[in-house]
Amino acid sequence: MKSRVINTLLTFSLPITFTIQAGGVEGSTRTLIRIDQGWKFTFEDLQTAQQPDFDDSSWQIISLPHNWGWEDAQRGKPYRRGPGWYRRILEIKPFQGKRYFIRFEAAGSVADVYLNGRHLGHHRGAFGAFCYELTPYLNPSGTNVLAVRVSNAPESDVAPLSGDFPVYGGLYRPVWLIQTPEICVTPLDHGSPGVAWLQTSVTKTQAVLDVIVQISNARRQRTNLTLVCQLLDRQNNPIAETIESIVSQPRVTEPFWAKVTVQNPRLWHGRKDPYLYKAVVKLMAPDNSLIDEVIQYVGLRSFTVDPEKGFILNGEPYPVRGVNRHQDRPDKGWAISEQDMEEDLALILEMGATAVRCAHYQHSSYFYSLCDRAGLLVWAELPLVDRIDPSEKLR
Predict the structure, then answer these.
(1) What is the per-residue DSSP string for 224-259?
(2) pLDDT at 5
(3) Using an 8 Å Cβ cutoff, are 169 and 109 in contact?
(4) On the chain, which terminus has fewer CB atoms closer than 10 Å, C or N?
(5) pLDDT-based confidence at 25, cuts 50/70/90?
(6) Rounded distance between C-alpha atoms, residue 41 and residue 58, angstroms
C-alpha cells in the first residue's frame, strides 16, 4: 500500500457524532442523479454570466469535482483567491406531481446559484451542503441553464479566517439532481436528508430514539398521511417500528415527531463490532400506497468520558488511538474521489487506529459513512480556526 503522511492524534475527548451520507440517501420513490459531466468554467467575474443566453462557448469544459488554488499552494506559492463561474445545461422536462431540487455537497467558499437567470440562493461557508428547489423555475421546454458563481476570496464573516491549510475554491464535492413526489421528506433542511434519528437513551437492554421528520407539502390542500419509522437488521427484518397518523398542511414544511424503541439492541461497538441498522422513514397515503421514503443507516451506542478511565463506549473502556485527516491530495486539492477517501480509510485502519479527527472543518458525508461502517470514532469540527472578526458585521 502506498504510504502517506497522517498526523498522529494524541488525545480524544470531544463528543462523537455518527453522520450518514446525505448525498447518498436511499429511497424507492425518489431519483438522485449525480451531475459530474457537461460543466463549463471560467475565472472571469462576469456580470451577466447567469443569463440563459450568455455566450459561454469560450469557457473551459470541466467535470466535477473541481477546484482551484492547489496548483500554487501545494508548491509553496501564493494561490488564487477570488471568483469563478460554472454553467451547465439541465435537461429536465417537469412532470406534474413531481418536484426537483439541486443539492451541492460543498462549494468553496461562497456560492450564488441561478436557474434560467433566477437567483435561487446564496450560501456562505466552504464545507457544508446546501440545496435549492428548481421546480417553480423550470422551463416547460425541458432545457434549463444552471449557473453558479463561487468565490474563495477572504471574507470577515466566513470561517476560517486563518489556519495552517489553504482554502481552495470551486465545486469540489458532488452535485446532485433530486426528483421527489409532491409531498416529500424535504431535502431543503440545511442540505440534510430531512430526518434526524436522535439517540435519546441507549443501553444494552433498550434503545430509545426520537425521530424528527421534516415533511414538505406542495399541494394546495391538507393531506392525511401515515408516518412509518422503522429499524431493520442486516437481513432487512423489522426489529422496531412506530406508525403515526398525521395531517400535512398545504404549502408548508413542518416537523413531525415519532419515538422508536428497540429491545435488546445490537450496539455499535467501534472496531470490535460496527453494527449498523437500516433506518427507514415512509410517508404513506390513505390507501396505504407509498408516497416517499428515506433510508439511512444508524449505529446505536452510548458514550461518556471519565477522567480516570478515559473514553467509555457502551459502558466499557474503549482505547482511543487515532490520527488527524485533511481532505486534500497532491495534484487534486480538495477535489478528491470516493476512491481517495477509501484509500485514506484503509491507511488509517492499517495503522491500528480506532478514531479519526476530521481537521479542521466538516468533511465529506461519504467519509463519515465509511467511518461508521468501519467502526472508527469520529471527532467532527467546525472551521473556526485561530481567530474571528470582532467587527459589527458579525453581530
Answers:
(1) EEEEEEEEE-TT--EEEEEEEEEEEPTTEEEEEEEE
(2) 31
(3) yes
(4) C
(5) low
(6) 9
The grid coordinates of residue 299 equal 449505529
Q: What is the end-to-end Cα distance of the chain in Å, rounded?
A: 50
Q: What is the pLDDT of residue 7?
A: 33
- Cβ atoms of residues 381 and 360 within 8 Å: yes
* DSSP string over 6-37: -PEE----SPP-----GGG-B-TT-EEEE--S
pTM: 0.92
Task: Please write down the long-range contacts of 118-125, taking CB distance under 8 Å and 24 or more positions apart.
Answer: 119/50, 124/155, 124/157, 124/158, 125/158, 125/159, 125/383
The answer for residues whose C-beta is within 8 angstroms of residue 337's C-beta and 6 or more apart is 65
- Residue type at 294 in one-letter notation: V
Q: Which domains are delineated in the chain? A: 8-16+304-380 (no CATH), 22-182 (2.60.120.260), 195-298 (2.60.40.10)
Q: DSSP string of 44-87? A: ---TTTTSTT---TTSEEE-SS--BSHHHHTTTS----SEEEEE
Q: Is the peptide bond before 160 cis (omega within 30 degrees of 0)?
A: yes
Q: Which amino acid is at 262?
A: V
Task: Dump pLDDT digits (tens) for 41-88.
Answer: 999 999 999 999 999 999 999 999 999 999 999 999 999 999 999 999
Cell numbers for 270, please give them: 467501534
